């Protein structure tokens, strides 16, 4: 009955949990698989059961029993049924646990995404992401202040469209290095803003990975036009 318990040594399931497959007994009084204590405690002459595994650990058993002895041994279909049934029962808590872990992970990702978006919204630097085709998948709002483009207008367009020579080759090389797993550091590139003016952006970029596979590039760009102009004046 629900809530009742019995020492495992006194139960038919003592032997069941030791087996890789099933335990099928059609005449318990003459079977070595059932202890005398178990027989006296439960009085089942017929028993068929299999253990339930959850993530490789014994969770319990599923079994059927009868006080009357069975006329003959169990058929193959019946033993296969009990083993399949036990596996299905074991999958239920595994699935629930997986769904709970997935939900928790998604919640953490949502919190992290909100935190990063909060940083991006208030940062003066340009945060960006590129896919494997070199097209923007995300650009932070700072790009409008720095280059005059609305972020949504850049999403889906190649980064090369807003970079001019002579630094375009450097941009392609830095992107290729990031795709190969080598981060780009302090790469100064000439961008053209919405008014056609030259803006120097210092870019740092790293690869984006998913299950160990590179799926894009992410980075940050900082307007260093004024710094470069001051450096040129000092050099003169």
Q: Key features?
A:
five-stranded antiparallel sheet, alpha+beta, single chain, 236 residues, 8 strands, three-stranded antiparallel sheet
List strands and helices in order, with pairings.
Layout: H1 13-16, E1 22-25, H2 36-42, E2 46-54, E3 57-66, H3 76-122, E4 126-130, E5 136-139, H4 142-147, H5 151-154, H6 168-179, E6 184-192, E7 198-210, E8 213-223, H7 225-235
Written description of the protein model:
- It is rod-shaped, with a radius of gyration of 34 Å.
- The model has no long low-confidence stretch (mean pLDDT 90).
- It has 236 residues and is of the alpha+beta class.
- 22% of the residues are buried.
- It contains 7 helices and 8 strands.
- 39% of the residues lie in helices and 28% in strands.
- Strand 2 and strand 3 form a beta hairpin.
- The termini are far apart.
Distance between the termini: 93 Å
Multimerization status: single chain
Q: Could you state the order of secondary-structure elements as H and E?
A: HEHEEHEEHHHEEEH
* Major β-sheet profile: 5 strands, antiparallel
Task: Indicate the percent of residues in helices.
Answer: 25-40%
* Rg over alpha carbons: 34 Å
Number of helices, counting only DSSP H or I runs of 4 residues or more: 7
Strand content: 25-35%
Mean pLDDT score = 90
């Amino acid at each position: 009955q629900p809530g009742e318990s019995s020492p495992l040594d006194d139960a038919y399931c003592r032997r069941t949990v030791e087996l890789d497959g099933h335990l099928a007994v059609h005449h318990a009084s003459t079977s070595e698989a059932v202890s005398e204590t178990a027989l006296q405690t439960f009085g089942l002459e017929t028993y068929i059961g299999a253990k339930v595994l959850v993530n490789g650990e014994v969770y319990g058993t599923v079994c059927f029993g009868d006080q009357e002895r069975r006329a003959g041994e169990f058929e193959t279909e019946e033993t296969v049924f009990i083993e399949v049934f036990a596996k299905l029962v074991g999958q239920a808590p595994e699935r629930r646990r997986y769904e709970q872990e997935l939900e928790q992970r998604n919640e953490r990702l949502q919190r992290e995404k909100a935190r990063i978006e909060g940083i991006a919204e208030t940062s003066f630097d340009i945060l960006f992401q590129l896919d494997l085709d070199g097209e923007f998948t995300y650009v932070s709002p700072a790009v409008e202040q720095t280059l005059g483009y609305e972020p949504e207008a850049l999403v889906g367009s190649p980064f090369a469209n807003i970079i001019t020579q002579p630094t375009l080759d450097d941009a392609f090389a830095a992107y290729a290095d990031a795709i190969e797993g080598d981060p780009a550091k302090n790469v100064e590139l000439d961008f053209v803003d919405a008014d056609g003016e030259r803006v120097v952006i210092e870019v740092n970029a790293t690869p984006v990975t998913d299950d160990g596979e590179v799926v894009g590039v992410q980075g940050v760009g900082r307007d260093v036009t004024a710094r470069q102009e001051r450096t040129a004046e000092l050099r003169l």
